[in-house]
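User: Could you go from structure to sequence for me? I need the amino acid at each position, not a summary. Structure tokens:
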């Protein structure tokens, strides 16, 4: 009973400490789901996709790469300087997201196509020059799941509420970029965000109960790059 109470207290503390990230996430999900139910997934998508400009084309073309799996691997490596437990935990999160997204797209919802295939023509869509939207396997958005897992994990490590808000905003715009680029529907973005958030909370919570001196160790060596600009 004491152990169960301790586990509940820990997850509650994590949620409370990161409400600056999680509360906007909940509002975003409820808002998107409400609009999907009222106007339909495809109609809401066309509205978002239709709000475009040359500046936004450039912005979201590059912004979407913040949800790339390569960035998750870079974070795993960076976390080795925080603790081996954090690095291993986020590696597990990344692997789980990769596997679950693949299973959902290819085996659970294989009949759900992306906007280009759904509409059958690009005349209704805004296609950004230089970006070729995928065609098949749309649900959920892997880029969004990765962006929200990165954002929430960094939020957990941060103590600044402003930083947490910025991390949520960044993750949200990665998801938004997937709709803007005609790569995903709104429901895919909500699904990806929810997958990223739930897996991050679950894995981070579970990692705290694996005891061992190795977990709190970290790489002590600081590359010269990190010493640049410091007074000797």
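Assistant: Here is the amino acid at each position, in order:
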């Amino acid at each position: 009973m004491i152990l169960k109470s301790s586990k509940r207290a820990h997850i509650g503390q994590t949620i409370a400490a990161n409400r600056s990230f999680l509360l906007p996430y909940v509002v975003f999900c409820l808002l998107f789901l409400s609009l999907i139910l009222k106007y339909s997934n495809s109609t809401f998508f066309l509205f978002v996709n239709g709000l475009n400009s040359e500046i936004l084309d450039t912005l979201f073309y590059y912004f979407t790469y913040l949800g790339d799996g390569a960035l998750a691997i870079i974070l795993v490596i960076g976390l080795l300087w925080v603790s081996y437990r954090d690095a291993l935990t986020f590696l597990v999160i990344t692997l789980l997201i990769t596997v679950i997204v693949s299973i959902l797209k290819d085996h659970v919802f294989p009949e759900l196509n992306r906007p280009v295939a759904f509409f059958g023509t690009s005349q209704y869509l805004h296609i950004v020059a230089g970006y070729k939207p995928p065609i098949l396997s749309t649900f959920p958005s892997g880029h969004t799941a990765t962006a929200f897992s990165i954002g929430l994990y960094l939020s957990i490590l941060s103590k600044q509420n402003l930083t947490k808000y910025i991390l949520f905003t960044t993750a949200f715009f990665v998801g938004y970029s997937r709709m803007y680029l005609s790569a995903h529907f709104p429901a895919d973005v909500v699904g990806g965000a929810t997958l990223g958030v739930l897996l991050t909370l679950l894995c981070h919570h579970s990692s705290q109960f694996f005891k061992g001196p190795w977990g709190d160790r970290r790489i002590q060596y600081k590359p010269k790059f990190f010493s640049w600009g410091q007074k000797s």
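One structural detail worth keeping in mind: Residues 15-40+54-122+136-212 form one domain.
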